[in-house]
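Researcher: Next entry in the queue.
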Amino acid sequence: MRSTDHLTVSDVAQRSGYTPSALRFYEREGLIHATRTSGNQRRYERSVLRRLAFIRAARNVGLTLDEVAAALATLPDSRTPTRADWTRLSRSWRNRLDDQISALEKLRDGLDSCIGCGCLSLQRCAMSNPADIARRDGDRMRCAGRHLLRRI
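Model: Structure for this entry, 152 residues:
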């Protein structure tokens, strides 16, 4: 296959791991582009595979599709991201990852004191009751956790 050859939807789906419906969705959202044959079939340039890899990596970091679109929009002429582009764009995502890692570490470290304490109470649990909202909303009840669960 030459680099100038175009790929069908099924070719791109097979090579990228995305479903054909995801490819059509990303096209509608402007994240990828296709041309049409005279029979109105989609054809993608091979470079779409790199864009799809970029989208997958950005989504794995936790970016929304709007954030992915904004990142891709910073590329000149909507071109395919290069290694330098990835480095530049991903640098701004480091803080997000650091925050996620910190939150996960706090979650992990708090597990022993949560349900592990045996109280099974949302009234005192910092994990299930951040900022003591159960006490504020259900102070008159014997078990504020029960009050919160009933509202769900």
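Model: The longest helix spans residues 94-110.
Researcher: Noted, moving on.
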